[in-house]
Amino acid sequence: MSKTTKWLVGGVAVVAIAGIAYASFGPQTQSKDKETLTVGIMAGDKRTDKQWKIIKNNAKKEGLTLKIKTFTDYTQPNAALSSGDIDANAFQHYIFLNDWNKSHKSNIVPVGETILVAGRLYSDKHKSIKDIPENGTVGISNSKVTQGRSLLVLQSAGLIKIASNVKDPTVKDIVENKKNLKFKELATDQLVRTLPEVDVAAIDPSFIVGSGRSIKSAIYVQPVDKNTHGGINIIATTKNKKNSVAIKKFVKAYQSDNVADYIDNKSGTGEIAVWKGAPKVQ
Length: 282
What we know:
By secondary structure, this protein is of the alpha/beta class. It has helices spanning 3-33, 46-61, 76-83, 94-104, 144-156, 205-210, 245-254, 257-266, and strands spanning 35-42, 64-71, 88-93, 108-113, 115-117, 120-122, 137-141, 161-162, 174-176, 182-186, 200-202, 220-221, 233-238, 271-273. α2 (46-61) crosses α7.
């Protein structure tokens, strides 16, 4: 083989190798800049839309496009995740996910904490839990599920104790009531109206906002501790995706200071940003 022929063959080989290298690495770099992740959430309101706009903008700065898919049934986001219709979801708390995995034998895992819908107590008569008198009156929802949550808030505040083996407690499950508090059970949407009459009431923040009051007027806010940990909402995905770059970028985009500021101080939802490193509520 002549020197010229060897040079030509060698040149072709170099070009071929360069082409293979580009095919192997070039497109990956390009696709990395255009990563897309589909996230399932529950249909919300304008406040939720604003929050997700902030999250999407954060993700965009990381080279990640978030596509949001909304659901109206709480069984849908996890089913869609397991089937591969979405890549992650952000709608449920630890307790819900644990129950789902047990009953559906699924492999959905939490990859980041988001918010806690903290229980709150309100009063027109008192500025502190300590001011609530003996034989005082407590306004509480007559809905079984809501009443159970409200009783846990009252227990957290030190006003009562409820039986430890009851999943959804009612007033009948109160085992200690040192102040001999009386309970006035009402429809959930009527509790705000009863504030002038009762000493304290457990009220959903959405009804407080609807009445023109400030969420921050609560005299007690349920803290983030071992008793409320199960109620912390999470970002979830499947085991095979939990370590992906896109998922990590999504978690970072959500767990940002500007998202925490919106949740805690501007959303009006009564939610608290609870991930590690989240700014404290002002």
